Amino acid sequence: MDNTIAIGRSETEVSLKSAVYITMASDIYKELREYVKHYDTEVSGCGLVEKIIHKLKNADTDKPDTQILEFKIIEVFLPSKQRNTGATTNIDDEEIHNIVAQLIKDGKDVEKLKLHWHSHVDMDTFHSTTDEDNYDTLFNGDYLVSLVINKAGHFLGRIDLQNPAIISISDVQIYVYATADDKVMDKVNMNLAKLDEYIKKEKETSIVSYKGYGNHAGYSDYGDDAINTANNWWDIEDEYEKKVGITIAETLHMTKKQKKKFDKCYRVNCSGCNETNLCQNYKGMIDDALTEFRRTNYGTSGL
Q: Is 277 helix (H, G, I), strand (E, B) or coil?
C-alpha cells in the first residue's frame, strides 16, 4: 500500500446478495440438546455440513436470479476425550484425528467436517473472544459453521466464509425439520457413556499442582469465593483461575468491588463502561496465566 493515494470513499460497505441459513434434522437438534443438558460444564464437538445452493428464477429476466445458501448439518459428533470447565472446552487433538480416520473408513466426505459446536451452560449464547480465536484456526476449506448452545435451548448460529473474502455472518437463522428417527437416544447414551468414563478416569488420576502463584499477603481481602483443595483437573483449573485472579487484582491495585464486577463481565459490550481498559487488562492477564497453566500441565493451550 506504499505510494498509494485513496481517491474513493473512506468507508467500505458490504452488501450480501444471497440469503444464508442453517438447517438440521430434529434428531440432530435433540442430540445436541441432550449433550448440552447432561453437563454442568461447557462441552463441545464437531460435525458434517453440506452446502446446498438454491437458485430462484427472477421474473424479471434483466435481473439476476436469487441465490440462497443452505448449510445443512447432517451429522454431529461428541469427542470422548475433552477437558471442560464452566468457561472453557478443550478437545484432545487425538480425538479429531480419530473422527477423521473413522470418516475415511466409513467412506464419508472428510471435507464436510465443517461444524464446530459448544455449550455456554447457563450463560447467554454469544461469541466470546476465545471462540473468535478458535474459529480462526478451525477452518477446513472455504467455510465454517458454528453453533453456541445453552441449557435453556437457545441456539446461536454463525457462518464464517473464507472465499472469495473473509466474512463472518452471525445470528444466522436456524431451521429444524422433522424426522422419524427414534434411535437418536441410543447414540446419545453411548457417546455420553464414553465421555463420562473419560471424565471419571480423569477425576481419579489427575494430580496437578499450582505453579508460579502462591499465597499472597492480600489473599483474604479478595476471598469472597472459597478456594478449596481440588482433586480433578477442571476443579483445579477453576480454583487456579480464582487464585491467580486474586494475585492479578492485587498487582493492578483493584478494589474488591472492581474485581467482582470484572469477574462477571463477559466482554461482549464494553460501550459506556469507564473501566474498560482496567477490565481488559485484568482479563487479558488471566487469559495469559491460564494459557501458560494449560501448556505446563496439559501440554495444550486451548481447543
A: helix
Residue pointed to by grid coordinates 437457545? 154
What mean pLDDT do residues 220-227 have?
44
210: confidence class by pLDDT, cuts 50, 70, 90: very low
Closest of 297, 277, 111, 285 to residue 206, by C-alpha? 297
- The residues spanned by each domain of the chain are 18-201, 208-297
**19 alpha carbon, distance to own chain's centre:** 24
Average model confidence (pLDDT) for the chain?
Answer: 80
Rounded to an integer, what is the distance from CA 214 to the centroid of its chain?
31
| Cα distance between residue 245 and residue 225, in whole Å | 11
The domain at 18-201 falls in which architecture? 3-Layer(aba) Sandwich (3.40)
**Cell numbers at 17, concatenated:** 446478495
Q: CA 103, CA 109: separation in Å to the nearest integer?
A: 7
Distance of CA 57 to the CA centre of its chain: 38
Q: How many other CB atoms sit within 10 Å of the CB of residue 244?
A: 20
Rounded CA-CA distance 45/37 in Å is 14
pTM listed for this prediction: 0.64
Q: Are 275 and 63 in contact (CB under 8 A)?
A: no
Q: Of 286, 264, 295, 261, which Cα lies nearest the Cα of 275?
A: 261
